[in-house]
Amino acid sequence: MIRLLLVDDESLIRRGLKALLKLEADLEIVGEGENGIDAIAQVEKLQPDVVLMDIRMPIMDGVAATRQICQQFSNTKILVFTTFADEDYVAQALRYGAAGYLLKDTPSEELAQAIRMVHKGYTQLGPGIGKVMEQIPVISKSTPPGWDELTPRELDILKLIAKGASNREIAETLYIAEKTVKNNVTRILDRLNLRDRTQAAIIASSLLGVDN
């Protein structure tokens, strides 16, 4: 069972999300919050697996909450739930450790699947916010140390990571074993000195021009 915290300043959106996600047998809504302060307090109290985090909220926004939660509660994944107008905020949230983002018009079945993938440790980068990757200042167009050591296979895997593909999907696409994909991903992260798949996706999107 995936324990889920819903954070949005609009109660109508929270109620709608709760009604939709309660239909998923493997998702459990353990709490709600209406701002970043609520989110931090609820994470500390409830220890959810995944936080579905709105960005623009009063008192404390989702970016600041994401930063603090990622620093203090490393076992909790954050999936930003946003709109087209929030590119700057999304870029900051990703930089601070969010596992990905989705737009608020995402169909419920896709949202549920994204929550599952984030819980498993995969990156979820939704479509529609084209400039997000360009706005993350820690990523430049210059190649990072270790980039030139990547093999063609590893570059192919990086491209698929940037598209949000799971290890199984990468294995099926490249006709290799899932364990081989996992080993390659580990080498990529080590070689490029990256923290996780989210950073790998950002690097790939920036340097390989991947359109997810």
TrEMBL record:
SMART domains: HTH_LUXR (SM00421), REC (SM00448). It comes from the Bacteria. Gene3D superfamilies: 3.40.50.2300. GO terms for biological process: phosphorelay signal transduction system; regulation of DNA-templated transcription. Residues 143-208 form the HTH luxR-type domain. This is DNA-binding response regulator. InterPro entries: CheY-like_superfamily, NreC/VraR/RcsB-like_REC, Sig_transdc_resp-reg_C-effctor, Sig_transdc_resp-reg_receiver, Tscrpt_reg_LuxR_C, WalR-like. It comes from Brunnivagina elsteri CCALA 953.
